Each structure stands twice: as structure tokens, then as C-alpha cells.
Amino acid sequence: MDQPSFEGRPLPRPEEEVFDQGLAFDLETMNRRRALRYLGIGASAAALAACGGTTDSASTSSTSAVGASSSSSTSTTTSTTASGDLTEIPDETAGPYPGDGSNGPNVLTEDGVVRQDITTSFGDYSGTAEGVPATIELTILDMANGNAAFAGVAVYVWHCNRDGNYSLYSDGITDQNYLRGVQVADDSGKVSFTSIFPACYSGRWPHIHFEVYPDQASITDSSKAIATSQIAIPQAQCEEVYATTGYEQSVTNLSQLSLATDNVFSDDSGATQLATMSGSVDKGYTIALTAAVDTTTEPTGGSAPK
After folding, report:
1. Per the record, which residues fall in region Disordered (predicted)?
2. Beta strand 9-10 pairing with 133-142
3. Contact, 299 vs 150, CB < 8 A?
4. DSSP letter at 19?
5. Closest CA to 284 of 193, 157, 205, 208
6. Whole-structure pTM over 0.85, yes or no?
């Protein structure tokens, strides 16, 4: 039997979860991510230089390309730099528990996955995720169309439960599919999910995964995702929630982490992925993020263990 691997690398502790592979493995993951990001920046700069563009002209070209149609010849210019006050949402790994068919089960083929309330399991499964109530709000903007609201895109959201475990994958809840669901963006580019506040598990800053698809018809094929990223949850609200019953282990886990050392958000401390928060433990929280998606750039995230 082949040794289990993650992103092409053998797992030193194949019997453990990916996030329990040890510090050396985590550091290599972080360094590989940084190297790929730097290579991407270098490749973009080289392409501009080959076209004879100066720094000023390249900046002008990038700005004008954002407002152009995605079919325009200038739309190949990268928009990983800021456009006005917006920056393209970083591509991030979908991780080992995506449930999108790229690593095992595919919840996106199931009837009922398009739903607003993701606290309960659906279809052949039953069960409810317990925890502090949370509403997840995402606003998707179309950078290739002048930062307009990206109406009609399908957004798949998933995250761990109060214990730090993922439905469909973790021991004891492989027969659950809660905390997973899809919404189609309205005319404002917005989607909203009723959920619970996720835990902080060992080795990862508290986060929520999401994938953006061109439309609902595309969701059954993970390769059609036009963006794969994560929402980082601010520390202050995490500390408030983790002081409540049921989140005890998250207190210890959070104390050992920071956004600057997390192996996903450390590139920029989650600058464009840090949620805006409102609410309270008693009334529940709203976790909101605006994500700018550029369909003229090649998605690089979403890789899962092989």
C-alpha cells in the first residue's frame, strides 16, 4: 500500500491527522507556500518585462485590465496587486477534508446541499452540530468586471465543529455531513449561512473554508472552482467563544498559535482574509468577509492530499 501523502510529500506520521505531523512538516508546508507565492510574483514581473513594460506602465495596465471585459486581450494581466481598495482573495489549500470529491466523499453531488442552514446533516444523514451560533456572510466581487457584485456564483462553505472535527472524515462523524452547504450569490454578490462558531484545533488558526464556482451547475466538479480560500476569525471573538462550555480544548490550542505563525495565513497575517465581526456569545456572531475573485488569473489553491 502506498504511503499516505499530503501535497506530494509522505506523511511522517501516517496514522495521525495532517495537522499532527509535527513542527518540521508544518514549517516545510509554510516555506513551500511562500516559495510558490514568490515564484508567482517573479513570473508576473518577468512577463511584464518581456513585454517591455516599465513599473509605471505595468501598474497602469493592471488597473485598466480590471475594468475590462474578461474576454479582452488585456485581461491576462495579473490582478494579485490591489485594484482600488481591493486585492484578489488569496488561493488557499482546500485541506484534507474538503468533501468536494477531490479527496474522498463529494457532498456537492447530494440533493439538499444548496441550503442556508448548515448546522444539521441532510439527505441520508441526521445530526446537529452544537456550539455558539454564527452567521457566515460572504460578498463575492468580480474583479474582471470592474469589481461588480458577482451575482449567480455558487459558494460552498465548510468548517470544523466545536470539537475541531470535520463531518464525513473525522472519527465518530463520518456518518454526518453537517457544517457543509452551498448558496448562490444574490444580485449583491452575497451569500449567508446559519452555522456555529468553529473550534481551534491543534496547529491551525480558527478558520472557515470556501470555494467559489461559476454557477450552481458547476459545483459537482471541484476542478471548476474559480477560487478556493479561507476566512480567518479574529482573536478577540475566538477568546470570547472559547471561554464557554464545549470549547475548552480550543483555549489551549489558540494559545499556541498566531496569525503570523499559522501555516496558511502567515504570508500576510490574513490581511485580506480576516473577517469583520459583530454580535456576542449570547446572541450569536456574524462572521463577514468580502472576497474579490479574478477570473482572468489561474486558480492555484484547492490541492488536497493524494
Report:
1. 53-109
2. unpaired
3. no
4. G
5. 193
6. no
